[in-house]
Specification:
5-stranded mixed β-sheet; Dna Topoisomerase Vi A Subunit, Chain: A, domain 2; alpha/beta; Helicase, Ruva Protein, domain 3; homodimer; 203 residues; two-stranded antiparallel sheet
Chain lengths: 203, 203
């Protein structure tokens, strides 16, 4: 005979449920994490909880490059050590961080916050393209590097932007095919990314 | 020339660092989770943060079975539908939940909160063994099921408890060897656990 089973205590069940909503965390991992958090010292658990809230409360979108930043305009956009005549266009903030880790790029960025994906109903209006065009029209930009991922959607997005930019007579480049095709920019190692930056080709 | 690279915004870096402390979450997963949390609706992120705090503030250890619970004594220990003469001893709360999911066990539990592990400096005094002995000496317990994991430390802990209990003339059993040896109780499926419960042998 089966009898009704006793679930975890309500606050534990709730935490398991909340953790299970995160990407890449299944029900078993969620349960394991929940009990780990329960055993954590109070101060550490609280500092994680506060970091989750702070990340939303204390960050802003830079109105220029659209990256997530401490201040608007962000430290990259206001840096005098950066070349303001070159913009590297990326899909998301994680890609910007990956490029920064190479330590070899001295220009500015533009974060699209997505790529064109008709299957998911994501069109040009859903990306930060208007903001990109405004920057280019009002600034002294000489080169735009299209650094979207080397996969179907990334390529389509790069092609789309290239067509938008072609009447403006800028140098428009794409990261070199040192990147593994079908891969994800964010997971590329620094050396591969450096090669890709240095071998960029006019498109 | 390498130039100083720009890290993520401080609140984002802090969150990545906090998430990276959790078991099974490496730096890349932590970064991905952090940006996911950043994009989450405010209410959902806040509800995760609150669940992390609540799990510590709103749970107690049941003074009888030592499980993490909403109330002390817990709902299992006070249930009249449970057999109070049988105690199943498990390493941790997750193991109790795994056994509850079989829906076939009607007795009580005792959570050790660990197993003997001389390598990690965990001795008998670090487990909830005193509490187990008190329950057995003051209650009407007829059987103790030793349901620690079927691995080296779990076996050693079961042997240790069996020796503690042998003078008391109780029935002491161990979950049947239906469990994959070297595995982890928490990940066993319900059917295997049911077989293990039903095929338990005197030790």
């Amino acid at each position: 005979m089966r009898i009704g089973f006793m679930p975890a205590a309500e606050p534990v069940s709730r935490l398991i449920e909340e953790l299970g909503k995160l990407p890449g965390i299944g029900p078993k991992s969620a349960a394991r994490l929940a009990y780990y958090l329960l055993r954590m010292p109070e101060t550490e658990a609280r500092s994680l909880a506060e970091a989750i809230i702070a990340v939303k409360d204390e960050t802003v979108l830079c109105s220029s490059c659209q990256n997530i930043a401490d201040s608007d305009p962000c430290a990259i956009c206001t840096s005098e050590e950066r070349h303001h005549n070159i913009i590297c266009v990326v899909k998301e903030p994680l890609d910007l961080l990956a490029l920064e880790r190479t330590g070899r790029y001295k220009g500015l960025y533009h974060v699209l916050h997505g790529v064109l994906s008709p299957m998911d109903g994501i069109g040009p209006g859903d990306l930060k393209l208007k903001e990109l065009m405004e920057r280019i029209e009002t600034g002294s930009v000489e080169e735009v590097i299209l650094a979207t991922n080397p996969n179907l959607e990334g390529e389509a997005t790069a092609m789309y932007i290239q067509r938008l930019l072609s009447p403006l007579g800028l140098r428009v480049t794409r990261l070199a095919r040192g990147l593994p095709v079908g891969g994800d920019l964010e997971y590329a190692d620094e050396v591969t990314l450096t090669h890709a930056l240095e071998g960029r080709q006019p498109m």
